[in-house]
Amino acid sequence: MKKVLAFAASNSSKSINKQLVTHAANVLQKQHMQDAEIEILDLNDYEMPIYSSDREEASGIPDLAQEFFNKIGQADVVLISFAEYNGSYTAAFKNIFDWASRINSKVYQSKPMVLLSTSPGAGGASSVLASAKQSAPFFAAEVKASLSVPSFYDNFDVESGQLANADLQLELVKSLSSLI
Fold first, then answer.
1. What span, in angstroms and rounded, lies between the C-alpha atoms of 158 and 35?
2. CA-derived radius of gyration, the chain
3. What is the pLDDT of residues 78-115, one digit of tens each?
4. Does the N terminus or the C terminus of the chain have fewer Cβ atoms within 10 A?
5. What value, to the nearest 5°, has the Cα angle with vertex 111 and ends 172 and 104?
6. What is the pLDDT of residue 152?
7. Cβ pair 61, 103 in contact under 8 A
8. Alpha helices of the chain — where are they, by DSSP H?
9. What residues are paired with 79 via a beta bridge?
10. What is the C-alpha to C-alpha distance for residues 138 and 154, in angstroms, rounded to an integer?
11. Domain tally for the chain?
């Protein structure tokens, strides 16, 4: 049985990226990996002090960082949907990532991944997605595909939890098929 790890790189309780990545995980299971076990992480479960080398020297690496790192290691595939704050990663994701990278710089542990992003605007968080795609291989990610969903509320049916835009849905299915 394949294990799919999915999370939004956001700590918002109303995260549209969590809605998107949850939909993607469900599509992956339904279309490509019927027997997959899906785990959706919530970054709020990994809240830690802001990383600093002084804090690491004084207190070591938090157990939550090890737990997050282990979750990636236990997965067969990883789906991440990036929220964009001021053109970059959210502070919540960046902090967890920074702590995990102190365990091993190969945070993504050679896992095949699909990277997603969305925003309410027409840009679809494409700036942070481009940054993630560019840097992920340096942290041992095997990025198979990526997809930015622009204008989330115009293209996603929040009530049903699914993409309403047929073209974007086809692109998502194609992106996810790269994982098999």
1. 26
2. 16
3. 999 999 999 999 999 999 999 999 999 999 999 999 99
4. N
5. 135
6. 98
7. yes
8. 16-31, 53-59, 63-74, 91-103, 126-135, 152-155, 166-177
9. 6, 114
10. 34
11. 1
